Amino acid sequence: MTRIAGLFLIAAMAAAPLPAAAEPTAEIADFGQAEDGTVKLVTLRNDNGMVVRISSRGGTITEILVPDRDGNFGNVVLGVTGFEAWEKLIGFNAITGRYANRIGNGGFTLDGTFYPLPGNPNTKVTLHGGFPSFAAKLFETRLEPAGERAGATFRLVSPDGDNGFPGELTLDVTYSLGNDDTLRLDYTATTTKPTVVNLTNHAYFNLGTHRGGPVYDHVLQVFASRWTPTDEHQVPTGELRPVEGSPFDFRQPRRLLETIYSTDPQVLLARGLDHNFVIDGHDGHSLRPAVRLWDPESGRQLEVRTTEPGVQLYSTNGIGGTIDAGDGMTIRQSDALAIETQHFPDSPNKPHFPSTTLRPGETFRSTTEFAFSTD
């Protein structure tokens, strides 16, 4: 067994939480005033000192404070400082929909009807449900006790025809934190007409914090034996290709740098990682490990578990130092790794992909957990 694999195993064995002295807490306060209303900020805290803050603008995670191996706390999600800066940074660490990731072909056909979607007129690709996406919307927010977890629910009602998608969609996303140092996201959605839905949180992680530099030396493990190659517009071709022998083989832990700097045509096309992985053993309802990430410098580790069939990994490829983070640094390429649990991109146009169709009388349900620890 390699040292890296051994450390992951040791951390997993040591992950059982100790008895809690008290239950985690949740607070809600005004974050700032926008044209469409008052933006709220929820703060979740547990007994171990972990803090998670979420804005009602898009259900955006503004901070996740966790300790390194020496007990020093740092923010492990990439972002900016202050209300006004967050109002300009729509999409970072936010709820993404109605359809996260890409839909090609200018739209999709459902029950014999073609629904055109707004998108790039040259590529006919719609990204993250079009603009404005859910990430830009102001969600209704309420605190939501969840047993031994502290939580808050963010609700959005998307009208029939919103960005071309049929049906009025009612979405609830509950963020909860326990003393197990795990942030849990529970999604539910219902519709008034047959529609398609794919939801995620587009969270950008740097376990060494932003000041620690790019994530090149982060060690990644992905529980996926297959991935979905894309065409020149980064829309899946429909192939489910084995990762074996490719830069996308993270079945054993290895450094991100090895793939981000690969000369593989798919990596060159995306300018790094921006690909969907097919999670092994997906059954539609069980939480399964999808990703483990480790920063050797700080010792922080993250395990992502999900009921979703896929996970998109994105190494912040399109950012070139034009965003002032407010910490004396700009945000640049490879400053973080986005981990987006999801159904596959372009599933409405790929009948052999897991279905994203939601019908009246049904309830869409999805859960993702972000579990933090140290080595």
Structure description:
- This protein is mainly β and 375 residues long.
- It is built from 4 helices and 30 strands.
- The strands form 8 sheets. A 9-stranded antiparallel β-sheet has the order 11-12-13-14-30-24-23-18-21. Strands 17-28-25-22-19-20 form a 6-stranded antiparallel β-sheet, with no helix packed on it. It has a 5-stranded antiparallel β-sheet with strand order 1-2-3-4-5.
- The protein is globular.
- The protein starts with a helix and ends with a strand.
State the CATH class: Mainly Beta
- For the record, give the distance between the C-alpha atoms at the N and C termini, rounded to a whole number: 16 Å
Domain unit count: 1
Specify the biggest β-sheet: 9 strands, antiparallel
Number of helices: 4
DSSP strand (E) fraction? Answer: 35-45%
- Report the structural category: mainly beta
Radius of gyration (CA) equals: 20 Å
Helical content band: under 10%
CATH topology: Beta-galactosidase, Chain A, domain 5
> Which word captures the global form?
globular
How many extended strands? 30
Low-confidence stretches: none
Mean pLDDT: 94
